[in-house]
Write a structure and sequence with these properties.
Layout: E1 8-14, E2 17-23, E3 29-33, H1 37-48, E4 52-56, H2 64-69, E5 77-78, H3 82-87, H4 93-102, H5 105-114, E6 119-121, E7 126-129, H6 135-147, E8 151-153, E9 157-161, E10 167-171, E11 174-178, E12 182-185, H7 201-206, E13 212-218, E14 222-223, H8 228-234, E15 238-246, E16 249-257, E17 261-263, H9 265-269, H10 271-281, E18 284-289, H11 296-303, H12 312-319, H13 324-336, H14 346-353, E19 356-360, E20 362-363, E21 371-376, E22 393-395, H15 409-429
Parallel strand pairs: 3-4, 3-12, 4-8, 12-22
Antiparallel strand pairs: 1-2, 5-7, 6-7, 9-10, 10-11, 13-21, 14-17, 14-20, 15-16, 15-18, 16-17, 18-19
Helix pairs in contact: 1-15, 4-15, 11-14
Length: 431
């Protein structure tokens, strides 16, 4: 148990927020397990508070999934107003609200700029570093943590606790036993396991009585039984400027045809509802509007013109301004309904173009998902993100049972809960 002797008062500054804690005159050791955004942010807050911090990670380098997230441009956070921002976390909003309010989007941008990585707001409201990549930010962050005395122990895979409550690791030098005054778990979910987040922690915590909601793919693709000809011709092709609808959910954006199904930003935005429907019913029908900016009446008029000698595909390309992959998708829908597109009256064809049914029959593997749903139930943690069953052990990031769409919300909550767990651990060290 941490000591309760009187100590000095230290002001901890995380971006533009200040937190005051009473720290012991002798620093205590905190183990952070996981060197992703949540773990490193917890380490920063703890080190600023005077704790001796060591970050352990199973991989050969830190922040591997963070770097993967920034490979196509690091979407750090989003600029929308806080109430709308918080609503993106759906049923987890009440549990994440305080952490994100304490470390909101602007605080994350300020923090990035202090590290020399200025940010900008894109046309969609998403926030990116001007360098557009994750690697410059991560390098600057690791340098700062090093100057703060944070130690980084790589190739250390956490395997749980021994009978005395010490942390156990497997390292290149063999088994290691570590004694810590507090621990922050930030091991991520189970997506992209080759980058370190393999979900193995779930079994360890379950054995300790911690309730874990099943880990499921989030922001994932889905499987579709495409015909061989469609798959071979259109794999990798984008459906641009489409509108997707499922039940009461709808979104505009882009989708990508894959060899086994469909994925992309617009798909990810609906993935939670689609996933739950498939898990319940074994399938889900997604409707795709190929020309969402044109009403059915106008489209019907365009499709009522004479086709002449041109092929029907060419007619659709010119009259309805459809891409080859969009026409192929229409033909897939026609085959599934045992009809031919050319036989449809213009009004029926127009309605089909604005609501092409695509039957999803499965969820893409969790190893290929962008993020993970499920994790440690919020009933298992207190307001400081400490596990109620394991005093002195805190959890942050994707280990917790929340999910959010892409657009900066995933990283924001990971940073914010990491900072909150760090503050919680500091408070624990003084209890």
């Amino acid at each position: 148990m941490p000591g309760s002797s009187p100590g000095m008062t230290t002001v901890i500054v995380a971006a533009n927020s200040a937190y005051t804690h009473t720290m012991p005159t002798t620093s205590q050791h905190v183990a952070i397990i996981g060197a992703g955004p949540a773990g490193l942010m917890a380490a920063e807050v703890l080190a600023q508070g005077g704790a001796a911090v060591t970050v352990y990670d199973a991989m050969p380098s830190a922040g591997r999934k963070f770097l993967m997230a920034g490979r196509g441009g690091l979407n750090l956070t989003h600029s929308e107003p806080l109430p709308a921002f918080l609503a993106r976390y759906r049923e987890a909003t009440p549990h994440l609200k305080a952490a994100i309010e304490a470390f909101p989007s602007q605080a994350l941008r300020d923090w990035s700029e202090v590290l020399g990585q200025e940010t900008f707001v894109g046309s969609s409201g998403r926030v990116f570093p001007k360098a557009f990549k994750a690697s410059p930010l991560l390098r600057a962050w690791l340098r700062r943590l090093d100057t703060m005395g944070v130690k980084l122990k790589l190739r250390h895979r956490w395997t749980g606790w021994d009978e005395q409550g010490h942390l156990c690791f497997q390292s290149p030098g063999g088994s290691r036993i570590i004694d810590a005054d507090a621990t922050v778990l930030a091991l991520g979910g189970a997506s992209w396991p080759r980058l370190g987040s393999d979900g193995a922690w779930a079994e360890i915590l379950s054995a300790r009585g911690v309730k874990i909601s099943p880990l499921r793919p989030a922001n994932s693709g889905f499987t579709v039984s495409w015909s061989d000809i469609f798959r071979e011709r259109f794999e990798g092709q984008p459906l641009k400027g489409v509108a997707l609808a499922f039940g009461r959910h709808g979104v505009r954006g882009e989708a990508i045809i894959t060899r086994t199904g469909i994925e992309g930003g617009a798909i990810y935005a609906l993935s939670a509802a689609l996933r739950e429907a498939i898990l319940r019913d074994g399938k889900a029908t997604l409707n795709i509007a190929l020309r969402p900016d044109v009403d059915v009446g106008e489209l019907t008029t365009k499709l009522s013109t004479a086709k002449g000698k041109q092929s029907f595909s060419n007619f659709l390309r010119k009259a309805a301004n459809l891409s080859p992959v969009a026409i192929g998708l229409l033909q897939e829908a026609a085959k599934a309904s045992r009809m031919t597109l050319a036989s449809l009256p213009p009004a029926d064809l127009a309605r089909l173009i604005q609501a092409v049914p695509v039957q999803l029959n499965g969820v893409a593997p969790i190893a290929r998902a962008i993020s993970t749903a499920g994790g440690i139930s919020f009933d298992e943690v207190d307001d400081a993100f400490m596990l109620r069953r394991l005093p002195g052990v805190f959890a942050a990031g994707e280990m917790l049972d929340w999910e959010a769409p892409t657009g900066g919300y995933l990283l924001q909550a990971s940073f914010a809960t990491g900072a909150a767990a760090g503050r919680g651990a500091l408070k624990w060290l003084n209890s």
